[in-house]
Amino acid sequence: MPIGIVSEPGREANEFKFITPDDEKLKTGEFVYYNVSLETEDEDSDLFSKTHKIFARVINRDECRGYPDSFLADPEVNPKHVAKKLGVISEDMELYRMTAKIIGYYDTRLNDFTNPRIVPKSGTKVELAPDDDLEKFLTNIEDVAEAFIGDLLHRNAGAVDIKLPVDNFTSTHLSILASTGSGKSYTCSVIAEELMKPDSRAAMLILDPHAEYHTLKEIEKMEEFKGNDGYKPKVSIWGPEDIRIRFAELSFREIISSLHNPSDAQEQRLREAWNRIQSSDDYGQYYSVNDLISECIPEDGSDAISDALTWRLRNAFDRELFDHSRNLSISELLEPGRVSILQLDTISAIDQQLIVNILFRKIYRERINCERNRDTQLDFPVFAILEEGHRFAPANGESRSLPILRTILSEGRKFGFGIGVISQRPSKIDDDILSQCKTQIIMQIQNPNDQDAIRRAVESVGEDLLSELPGLTPGQSVVAGDSVNTPFLCKIRERHTTHGAESLKTSKRWRESWTKNAQVPDKVVDADQDKGAEDREELL
Amino acid sequence: MVSKKIGKVIGSNSHIDYTCEIYRKRDKDNPPTPADHSFGQFVYIEKEIDGKNIHLIGVIYDSQILDPDQGRTGPKLAEPHEQELFHPSYIEEKMTLAGIALLGYCEVDDDEFCSNEHCVPPWTIEIDDIVRTLSDKDFLKFHEVDGEINLGYYQNLMELAGPFGTDLLSKIIDQLKDMKPDEEKTLEVIQKNIEFSKRIKGV
Q1: Among A86, A88, A90, which would you mutate to test the B interface (most chain B Cβ atoms within 10 Å of its Cβ)?
Q2: Which of A162, A152, A141, A147 is nearest to A193 (CA)?
Q3: Do B150 and A87 touch (CB under 8 A)?
Q4: Distance (Å, whole) CA A149 – CA A188
Q5: How far is A79 from chain B (nearest CA, A)?
Q6: What is the C-alpha to C-alpha distance for residues B134 and B116, in angstroms, rounded to an integer?
Q7: By residue range, what is the domain housing residue B65?
Q8: Which residues in A172-190 are b (16+ Cβ under 10 Å) and which e?
Q9: Chain B nearest-CA residue for A71
């Protein structure tokens, strides 16, 4: 049934305006369509006329007829009643002029929208896009595993399921950007749940600086995650005390990249020392940073270079994280059907960056080896989630993990290493990192700097959807990028597992703590009130 | 207030704007009092159309008094007290005229309003048609549509009554507020708007 009629072309070439009396169904972000007859080629290249549904997204709404302000003088009086008294037919009195942006018709050969660049004529009927069409056309999930993340906003719950193609966003990288409390980690957990389902069985790593993903452990016991072939997902949680890196595991590149601004001479000295250790039978697989420092000092005593290197090596590696013998091996961390959660909550920011630098370098190296048909520990793709992405890839460039992240974000797609960057401060993330995440889930963002950062990095999201960002409520998001055929608003589905990142109920905690303290007796008590006082009089 | 004959139609300025000559003392036994043809008085003219009894409803929106003696110069044939004897028609030309704006009509059955319309009536009033005052009960009935007060004639009346439109409508609304206290707030919004548009915007 038509819901409006085209009135005129819009300001931009691919926009049009239509008039609708009903604003209930039509909100900005909603999808509509009109019919156009187009010349199409059949299989024999013969031309024939075919009617296409041209889809468009509503981007703006203006009232063109409504109650005058004077009818709204008394808040207790409905303007409808005032209008009725004056003989105005108040039903459907309000008229809205909607502006819609043409997306195009869905071309089944391309599996994408094609814009015929035909603006509808005045008088063309506009209809609400059917739920079935939207579910089919908004994302392209044919022949690939799907991640069901929620429903299309503005439609009834369950009317239009949003399913992202897993292959796409796990290889071309994902970003989830939202202010605190808008549902970043909730959305990320939904994605983790989907990736652990039998259809995907991902090898997944979550770097969790706030230790809020531990509830994902529940999926191990849930029936919906079990496969008919005996598949059961595994969730491994590694606490800060478990995260150790054996110093001997580090490659020369990993060591040098962890040092603070080494000079060429220092790099040369370090390379020589490292080569000596590698070729020596004395060290084997177990040597420490002290061994490497010793090798850096010339036989005739320390010099300026060795002193500088000693300081840099101690600064980078003389900490609990690096162990002489214990190691967090990537073969333990990563396997298909396992999500490994690294809880970094008590680890310093610099150490967190070092972990990412070293771990991601190793994974990346193994993935390159795999794709180049060399020996490898990882013969399967990996998807890693990086919470608080701005800590690891800051816009000011001061991070040990930034160079490897830049490399992986720009080239990881070819080698099956996908990254999901999550952040509440998009403006503080390196621009290259943000723009290389080809699928974006953006939730409520109010800070203008963060909105600008998104505007710069995410070209496919139009101004109309960006303007929605401050008004989104928790769980509502804009989904854009390569995994979808056109950007849209989505309501993230409920988690199967419980949420582990609820805000602290501060006042409740304070009350509970006060009550507990009040029940503890004072340290000094009268002798006759002390514990066991009543038994003192009894004979032994 | 019961219905009372107050005059007869003697002319028109448009399809909804008629002139009524108010009866004088000598015209009938119970002549209309000044209150009967006051500003804002609702009136009706009864017509039989296609076998149906129709009351065309109007309101007095203007008045005019005529005294042909004023401004007339030249010799007179008789003393003023003798003029009545020699020139009866001349004396009769002193009159009060009332401007009536037609607001709609009602179909009447057994002296009860069975339907009402706030619109330009399709029929024309004729010369000498009698104008009667509308009772308070019928005044309210004329304004009730589906049990709620309706002023569907608002725009026509404002245009026709010109400078008096605001006061006239305000007076009508005052009457209706007294009769329907439960709709007072909504009527007040309209009344204030009307008064604002005249008194504030005009400054």
Answers
A1: A86
A2: A147
A3: yes
A4: 10
A5: 9
A6: 14
A7: 5-152
A8: bbbbbbbbeebbbbbbbbb
A9: B189
CATH topology of domain A146-243+328-492: Rossmann fold (3.40.50)
CB atoms within 10 A of CB A246: 18
Residue B146 falls inside a structural domain: yes
Structure tokens at A107: 């071309």
Residue ranges covered by each domain of chain A: 2-129, 146-243+328-492, 246-322
pLDDT in tens, A281-336: 777 778 888 888 988 998 888 889 999 999 999 988 888 888 877 777 888 889 99
DSSP B197: I
Residues of B at the A interface, defined by Cβ within 8 angstroms: 118, 148-155, 183, 185-190, 192-193, 196
Instruction: Render pLDDT for B1-42 as a digit per residue (tens, 0 to 9).
Output: 568 899 999 999 999 999 999 998 877 888 899 999 999 999
Element (H, E) at B19: strand B17-22
Identity of the amino acid at A305: I
Alpha helices, H only, B40-183: 83-86, 88-92, 136-143, 154-161, 165-179
Question: Nearest-CA residue of chain B relative to A78?
Answer: B186
When divided into structural domains, chain B yields a total of 1
CB contacts, 8 Å: A71 with chain B: 189, 193
Task: Give the distance from CA A251 to its chain's centroid.
Answer: 30
Question: How large is the angle between the packed helices A304-317 and A289-296, nearest 10 degrees?
Answer: 170
Asked if residue B165 is part of any domain, the answer here is no
Give chain A's length: 540
* pLDDT given for residue A408 in this prediction: 94
CB pair distance less than 8 Å for A82 and B154 = no
Which of chain B's residues have a Cβ under 8 Å away from the Cβ of A87?
A: 118, 150-155
Residue B153 · residue A87 · CB < 8 Å: yes
